[in-house]
């Protein structure tokens, strides 16, 4: 474990100790991840009379959804489904079949948050046939795509989608295709020793009430899994840095793109494809929270510097959501990330000649080289549309973000081979403002600038 400095460790431990004491959590286990590896672990309280270790299991609740989402994206990459497919194409028994796979992943399908019947988290689960049979047209609370509305039911349907495509349980697919490659051998659907027991803490006395724990069956994809601090650290490392054995880097990046915002104009919290997103003090975090009766958990990871944090407690309520980000703030204060050294990199001469100023009409832009043959086109001295572009095999560039995401930019040369202009989906960028030698749409009035 790449340990943090002693002063950092004490500051982190103090924050954890305050949380466990003030939240009155029977136990609290925390791990800091840096560069894809655990850098610091601490635990307060006890589990069955012993201090929790990185191998102690806790229930992780809705963090389960992130693993189910990765399975769905694997299926998409294999061509087994399209994110725009209605769920009914893959789970015909669902009476809400017009809602798309993407909408379920992003919680924009408008489905009810909880299934019909008693509170599913504290009662034995029912088979998927019973769940889909209990759903009706009234299970939709909002027009699909209209707004964010968290839905546990939606992920139950996604779990069934995975099961039907793999011909096995969703959990078996997750175990063989995600957990084993990542070395998460202690993440299971049922608890194994040593594991924490879930408790409710009396609001006005320091006494505990054991919480029930059941197999959620059809609802299991929404929150069934148990894991350990060591395993969840591996998951944080995956969310920030990826692993091609599990998912293509581009697909993981797609999952981390904001699909919906939870808090309107503030945009501090949102959702991608199966993952929660949080903007905090310059960080763009990806992860998820989890709660089940007797348990709270959260994992956040920052792809920018491969830093992560996770917290696991065996209490129904009381843990402050800020504890994880507070720990990241302490780490930033005591041991801020050091930028990687700059070093020169070779560039093809044909690309070097494209760098520098370009003009869209009278608006100045600058084209810069990125690693490989990728480029960035950004406004120069004025507001405008900035985008990064990935080089394609046919010599064009594909927009990665901003207004031009998904659009194609191509270089146009004159008959003598010299550069004429850039054509970005009909937008013409020239070396001079409204260059009369380039095919500017609408033409350039003679005698030009005056």
TrEMBL record:
SUPFAM superfamilies associated with the record: beta-lactamase/transpeptidase-like
UniProt keyword annotations, A-Z:
Hydrolase
Domain named Beta-lactamase-related is located at 21-320
| Example GO molecular function | hydrolase activity
Q: What's one Pfam family here?
A: Beta-lactamase
**Residue intervals of the DUF7586 domain:** 348-431
Q: Which PANTHER family match?
A: D-ALANYL-D-ALANINE CARBOXYPEPTIDASE, D-ALANYL-D-ALANINE-CARBOXYPEPTIDASE/ENDOPEPTIDASE AMPH
| Protein name according to UniProt | Class A beta-lactamase-related serine hydrolase
């Amino acid at each position: 474990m790449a340990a943090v400095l002693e002063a950092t460790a004490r500051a982190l431990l103090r924050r954890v100790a305050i949380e466990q004491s003030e939240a009155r959590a029977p136990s609290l286990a925390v791990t800091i991840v840096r560069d894809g590896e655990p850098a610091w672990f601490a635990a307060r309280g006890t589990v069955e009379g012993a201090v929790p270790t990185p191998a102690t299991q806790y229930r992780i609740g809705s963090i389960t959804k992130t693993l189910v989402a990765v399975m769905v994206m694997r299926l998409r990459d294999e061509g087994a489904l399209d994110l725009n497919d209605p769920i009914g194409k893959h789970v015909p028994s669902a009476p809400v079949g017009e809602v798309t796979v993407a909408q379920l992943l992003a919680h924009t399908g408008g489905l009810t948050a909880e299934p019909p019947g008693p509170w599913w988290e504290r009662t034995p689960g029912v088979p998927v046939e019973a769940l889909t049979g209990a759903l009706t047209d009234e299970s939709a609370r909002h027009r699909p795509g209209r707004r964010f509305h968290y839905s546990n039911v939606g992920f139950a349907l996604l779990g069934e989608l995975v099961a039907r495509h793999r011909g096995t349980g969703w959990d078996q697919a997750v175990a063989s295709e995600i957990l084993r490659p990542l070395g998460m051998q202690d993440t299971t659907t049922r608890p194994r020793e040593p594991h924490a027991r879930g408790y409710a803490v009396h609001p006005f006395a320091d006494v505990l009430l054991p919480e029930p724990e059941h197999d959620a069956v059809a609802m299991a994809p929404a929150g069934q899994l148990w894991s350990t601090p060591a395993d969840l650290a591996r998951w944080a490392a995956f969310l920030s840095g990826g692993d091609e054995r599990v998912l293509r880097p581009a697909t993981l990046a797609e999952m981390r793109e904001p699909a919906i915002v939870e808090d309107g104009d503030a945009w501090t919290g949102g959702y991608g494809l199966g993952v929660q997103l949080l903007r905090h003090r310059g960080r763009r975090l990806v992860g998820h929270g989890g709660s089940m009766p007797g348990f709270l958990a959260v994992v956040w990871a920052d792809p920018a510097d491969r830093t992560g944090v996770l917290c696991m407690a065996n209490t129904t309520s009381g843990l402050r959501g800020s504890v994880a980000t507070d720990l990241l703030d302490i780490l930033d204060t005591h041991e801020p990330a050091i930028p990687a050294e700059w070093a020169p990199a070779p560039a093809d001469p044909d690309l070097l000649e494209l760098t520098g100023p370009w003009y869209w009409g009278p608006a100045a832009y600058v084209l810069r080289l990125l690693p490989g043959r990728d480029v960035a086109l950004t406004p120069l001295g004025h507001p405008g549309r900035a985008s990064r572009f990935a080089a394609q095999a046919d010599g064009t560039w594909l927009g990665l973000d901003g207004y031009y995401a998904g659009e194609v930019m191509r270089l146009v040369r004159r008959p003598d081979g010299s550069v004429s202009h850039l054509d970005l989906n009909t937008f013409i960028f020239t070396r001079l403002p409204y260059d009369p030698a380039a095919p500017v749409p609408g033409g350039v009035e003679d005698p030009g600038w005056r």
